[in-house]
Amino acid sequence: MPIDNPISAEIASTAARLVVEDGMEYGPAKQRALKILGLARNGRAAMPTNDELEEEIRDYLALFCADTQPAELAALRELAAQWMSRLEEFRPHLCGAVWRGTATRLSNIHLQLFCDDSKSAEIALINKGVDYEVGATSGPRGREIDVLSVASPCPALAEQVTVHLSILDFDDLRGALKTDARGRSERGNLSALRKLMEEAIQ
Predict the structure, then answer these.
(1) How many domains, in total, are found in the chain?
(2) E-assigned strand segments in the chain
């Protein structure tokens, strides 16, 4: 559905290009779009929602990346599935662009791990000999959560892909599969991902 506000539409269009061409996340892309368009001071009221930006990204991909994006998405989903299998004990769920189907080779993989003990995932990575960096982000209840970032080879893309592992409490799993306003889930487990992958090749 077209965005009614012309300023919002312009911000979304510019941000979509930044997401696809530069691999930016939604929030930073919208902020950069404001600066590019000279709206840094008075454009915030017209900021498009993430859903509106996602629709613009889908249009951009269909127009400019239709010959490359499906294969890149498939490669990232396969890599995500491998990591979900390796970390199965932590009930991994895939979210972000790789789950939603808008990822390109520049996109990161975002996995959410639901852990009984917040340090158990780190111990598992250490035991598997996996190097990682620790960061933080805002969690589902507004509190800060750890994010473990791993550089993982992706042979299908012939490059490294960053896999971000967000560490959530087991109790957060209850609300994990809520759908958005259009009935689409924000994340999915390994079986749901495999179903998406099968549908994509039919």
Answers:
(1) 2
(2) 93-95, 109-115, 133-138, 144-154, 159-169, 187-188
